[in-house]
Structures are given as structure tokens and as C-alpha cells.
Design goal:
Elements (H helix, E strand, L loop, with lengths): L1 E7 L9 E9 L2 E2 L3 E7 L4 E2 L4 E2 L4 H27 L1
Antiparallel strand pairs: 1-2, 2-3, 2-4, 5-6
């Protein structure tokens, strides 16, 4: 299972913040991109590391939200595998 995060720069709001989108890939099959509803400025986004730059409180909060999202998606994926 692999998780990819990327910014949708074409979906920027007036403050120039872009929304982070997520794509999950399992066994070579990827899901449709879905919005995390997390907004970040493009200059604060590290596209290589797929993380927010910096150690500010806001950046740390966004990093925690992304980690929580990955954990929840992984958890539900493995629960569904056990049920099937």
C-alpha cells in the first residue's frame, strides 16, 4: 500500500492556498484522488517529501492531520481485508 499527497494548484483560493489531494495505491491499483480538505500555500509544500515545510504550529498541525489520515485509511483497508 502506498499513499501519495499532492497539491492541486489549479484549485487555489483567493489567498493562493491550494488543497492537498491524496491517492492511495494498493497492489498496483490506485484509487481516485480525493481531497483532504487541508489548505496550504504552495511555497510551504515540499512536493518531493510530500510534506509541509517548517516547524511552525500550523505546519505541525497539518503534518499530524496527514499522518492521522494515512493511519485511518490503512486501518480501514486492513479491516476490510479481514472481513472479505
Amino acid at each position: 500500500m502506498r499513499t501519495l499527497f499532492k497539491l492541486r494548484r489549479n484549485k487555489q483560493n483567493r489567498e493562493a492556498a491550494a488543497i492537498i489531494y491524496c491517492r492511495i495505491k494498493v497492489d498496483g491499483i490506485h484509487s481516485n484522488d480525493f481531497s483532504t480538505f487541508i489548505k496550504v500555500l504552495p511555497c510551504e509544500w515540499n512536493s518531493e517529501g510530500q510534506r509541509v515545510k517548517g516547524d511552525t504550529v500550523a505546519a505541525t498541525d497539518i503534518k499530524l492531520l496527514i499522518c492521522e489520515l494515512v493511519y485511518n485509511k490503512c486501518y480501514f483497508f486492513f479491516i476490510e481485508e479481514r472481513i472479505d
